[in-house]
Design a protein that fits this description.
By secondary structure, the chain is mostly helical. A two-stranded antiparallel ribbon has the order 1-2. Helix 1 crosses helix 3, helix 5 packs antiparallel against helix 6 and helix 8 runs antiparallel to helix 9. The longest helix has 23 residues.
Length: 224
């Protein structure tokens, strides 16, 4: 039993490490994910690496190909448009639910997260990208639906891939300002304002995605 738990813990570490690298855009769409290199970096077997990659494939973050190995997924423009449209619908639902029920404790959690975002604005772009996405996941969590949270979490992660592939550079300062305005609307229980702010914010995020030429950048898994 202990051995099984240890194996699970190591597999979870591989999954979490790769997922974070993808979301923070340290690994870019199209980057190869060789099982042997990943196994050496994490000190685990290729079997555990395969399990982690399978979980990431289920989330749409990794593409597995027979006889060609794994690589970070590269969504098409059509997929990108669909993902952003569905994300918009679900996040507006989350904000609409939260606006009428946000407690002082909820607002405090959002403000604490915003402080972390502000601290990462200067000099830590990767952390800023991750925290920006996690703010949206926190909103969904506070809305009180585990089903909604699961969908939003997956879509936010896939949007990180889309922005890495097609997007203009991440604007941390704009994100912080928009998140702060949304928190204030939630504090007032102003549902129309919160919905309008979220719609505008998501439209701006989607607007950063644009077609551009990208090349596969081969990098060291160990270094990442």
């Amino acid at each position: 039993m202990d051995g099984a738990k240890a194996g699970g813990t190591r597999a979870d570490s591989v999954y979490a490490g790769l997922r974070r690298a993808i979301i923070e855009q340290a690994l870019a769409p199209g980057d190869k994910l060789p099982e042997d290199a990943i196994g050496r970096s994490f000190g685990v077997s290729r079997t555990l690496v395969r399990g982690a990659l399978a979980r990431l494939e289920a989330e749409g973050l990794v593409r597995l190909q027979a006889n060609r190995g794994a690589e970070v997924a590269s969504p098409t423009l059509e997929e990108a448009a669909d993902i952003f449209e569905i994300r918009r619908c679900l996040e507006l639902e989350a904000v609409g639910r939260l606006a009428g029920r946000a407690t002082e404790a909820d607002i405090a959690r959002l403000e604490a997260h915003l402080e972390e975002e502000e601290a990462a604005v200067d000099g830590d772009a990767a952390r800023s990208i991750r925290l920006t996405g996690e703010f949206h996941i926190l909103l969904a969590a506070l809305a009180g639906s585990t089903v909604l949270l699961g969908y939003v979490s997956g879509l936010v992660s896939r949007c990180s891939l889309i922005l890495a592939l097609y997007g203009r550079p991440h604007s941390a300062e704009c994100g912080v300002r928009e998140h702060r305005a949304l928190i204030e609307a939630l504090r007032r229980h102003d549902r129309p304002a919160a919905l309008a702010l979220m719609a505008s914010h998501l439209d701006d995020v989607a607007g950063r995605a644009r077609s551009m030429e990208t090349g596969i950048r081969q990098r060291s898994i160990g270094a990442i």
